[in-house]
Amino acid sequence: MRIELDRPRCEGHGLCEEAAPKLMHLDDDGELVIDVPEVDGLNLVAAEAAVRVCPVAALRLAA
Amino acid sequence: MAVPTESDIDIWDDNILVDPYPTYAALREQADVVYLPKNDLYVLTRYDIIRDALGDPESFSSTSIGFNPMVNEALQGTSLASDPPVHTQLRATLSENLTPRALRGLKVVIDEKADKRVAELAASGSFEAIDSLARAFPIEIVADLIGFQGHVKDNMLRWGQAAMQVLGPLNQRTQENFPIAGELYGWCSSVTAEDLTPGSIGRGIFDAETRGDIPQGTAGHIIHQYLGAGVDTTIASIGNIIALFGHHPEQFKLVRENPALVPAAFAEVLRYWAPIHVWGRKATRDVEIDGVTIPAGAQVGILFGAGNRDPRHYENPDTFDVLRNPVDHLAFGYGPHGCAGQGLAKLEAHAIIEALARRVESLTISDEVRVPSNMTRSFDELQVVKVVAA
């Protein structure tokens, strides 16, 4: 699965980074960077958690 | 297709507004969707259904977030009351100054102000928590942020409260508050850059309008939303923090012993006592939920507090537990309309909780007074009869 970010919708709340710090981070400007876009196994579980906690629904998983 | 089951309650009944959780539990056990003939309203009661609806603006439109036609008419053209794709640009303009990245520079100032205020109260032996903390702190922060001064600052509390009340149905509270909300609306329609403190975010919004970065005439709208949405709700949350720590000293002790729990504690305060009682949507089509149909055009009411106590989603939902860390609670809403000010709300509330953890050893409360309010559930008065400084 691939993590997809709706960039205009992202406001940098950072809950996704807390849920999946190995997969994504907020850079020094507060912009979200997806470090590991393609995920499976344990990374997929973490990615699902990150998608789930985004308060503005800016992240999704696509096949 | 079946029609939803009904309940003959009035969701804006005074007793329900003050203590809604038994009613929420009954409605939630009845069904996902319950029709309330007295309010001509379809309420959503369970966590998953609420979250799905908030994430589906194509089926649940925000053109009817309030519960009377006048207020919905007055809100047309704001990000609050619009749907994608129009919503997307309005939201970006509104939230530009409110995102965590935009607010980073404010953290030090907000922390210092919270610490000073809480230290003074902790040293005072006893205090009334709503006027001296829950109201005073967010009013000071928002006034400085937007650049309100003079009579506007003095009116922030009543204007902010009225802006929420008038979202209700055409009951007495709504009728009484329309003139006050009208004062705010009138001021926001005529406010100019010079009315706001130089260097403030409010002044910056007018500068953006002058540059043409945002459409002419939108600056006043944005200021209106900051005040309408950012005052009454934050006041409710801060009052709830004090009350819940007073009711649950063992939970406060956990936070004092481990300040890393501050964000989790605030999320739990919001889950346990949602500041906003009910929020509106309009069904854009016949929407089927669990075998029943909400008809196209129907007014929908989202019960955040009912979803936040859904045992299908949270274990022991009626227990206040600062170790739970419910980051997916519904009190800020969710999705494209998720609270635009949640970054600021967290900065303010985290600063208060950190200051309490640092400055207060214990607090004893009494005389909690709640006054029924159409949209916000908060304390009107809360005596801290004894506070022991740390």
Write a compact overview of the structure shown.
Chain A has 63 residues and is α+β, with helices and mostly antiparallel strands. Helix content of chain A is 29%, strand content 22%.
Verbal overview:
The complex is a heterodimer of chains A (63) and B (390). Chain A is an alpha+beta fold and 63 residues long. Chain A has one domain: Alpha-Beta Plaits (2-Layer Sandwich), CATH 3.30.70.20. In chain A, 29% of the residues lie in helices and 22% in strands. Chain A contains two helices and four strands, in the order E-H-E-E-H-E. A two-stranded antiparallel sheet of chain A has the order 1-4. In chain A, strands 2-3 form a two-stranded antiparallel ribbon. In chain A, 29% of the residues are buried. By secondary structure, chain B is α+β, with helices and mostly antiparallel strands. Chain B has one domain: Cytochrome P450 (Cytochrome p450), CATH 1.10.630. Helix content of chain B is 50%, strand content 13%. Chain B is built from 17 helices and eleven strands. In chain B, the strands form three sheets. In chain B, strands 1-2-3-9-6-4 form a six-stranded mixed sheet. In chain B, a hairpin with a 2-residue loop joins strand 7 and strand 8. In chain B, helix 9 packs across helix 10 and helix 11 runs antiparallel to helix 12. The longest helix of chain B is centred in the middle third of the chain and has 19 residues. Chain B is globular. Chain B starts with a strand and ends with a strand. The model of chain B has no long low-confidence stretch (mean pLDDT 95).
